Amino acid sequence: MLTETQTQGPVQADDADGRSPSSPRKNEAQTPHICWHPGLVSADVRQSLLRQRPVTVWLTGLSGAGKSTIAGALEKDLLGQGQCCYVLDGDNLRHHLNRDLGFSVADRRENIRRAAEVAYLMNEAGLIVIAALISPFSDDRKMACDIIGKDRFIEVFVSTSTEVCEARDPKGLYQKARNGEIPEFTGISSPYESPQAPAMELNTEIMSVNAASSTLYEYLAKQSLLR
Beta 56-60 vs 85-89: how paired, if at all? Predict the structure, then answer.
């Protein structure tokens, strides 16, 4: 099932707050005497070279909902059409960049912050980013949107139900959570706050991976993000 609850116009070179994508965000540097060094290549040049406008497709949903599978399929489809993109997978990030983080509320927020900062940098380089993270809390997803920029942030809710995700349990995590082996597990012992106004909703209970990927691809093309 696909529900488009919000229509986003084409991404512009300037963000809604008036800054160029190559300029610093407000109140970034926490260390005094740090100055932003502007580059010599504009966002327009990168867009022209890559034939695309950089955005982050942020897939959020429960473990087992199909986020990573959809992300991989979309990446393959985009690359097959000559579009430059990359998947940021939550589990993969926890193997490297976020390996020092646990699953407390504070660590989950830091996990999302770091992922969003990486997505922002990749967007700055002109790439389309497909982020697949549970990202269970609304405030954390809003933070990610603020970091990336609302004109570049496309929130996609993979709305597969807890019952179906638990029945799939591809990694055996739900069973471990039920046995008390995994504390703070989203959907079991930690809440998931569903997006209230995502750009798109995909339900893999009734939608195949290929259909979900194709729907996302068509959405990006419709928004004039691909050329």
Answer: unpaired
Whether 13 and 20 have beta carbons less than 8 Å apart is answered as: yes
Q: Identify the pLDDT of residue 25.
A: 67
Q: How many CB atoms lie within 10 A of CB 166?
A: 18
Which amino acid does the sequence have at 151? D
pLDDT digits (tens, 9 = 90+) for 206-223: 999 999 999 999 999 999
Catalytic residue among 63, 68, 135, 159: 135
What residues pair up with 87 in beta bridges, in sequence order? 130
Q: Which residue type is seen at 15? A: D
Calculate helix-pair angle for 67-80, 209-222, nearest 10 degrees. 50
- Report CA 153 to chain centroid distance, whole Å: 8
Gap between the Cα atoms of 10 and 223, Å rounded: 5
What pLDDT, on the 0 to 100 scale, is given for residue 19? 44
Fold of 41-207: Rossmann fold (3.40.50)
Q: Which amino acid belongs to residue 47?
A: Q
Query: Residue 99 carries which DSSP code?
Result: T
Tokens found for residue 135: 């990202």
Q: Poorest-confidence range of 19-28, 72-81, 163-172? A: 19-28
Active-site residue, 135 included:
yes
Residue 155 amino acid letter: E
Of 62, 56, 7, 6, nearest in space to 205 by CA: 62
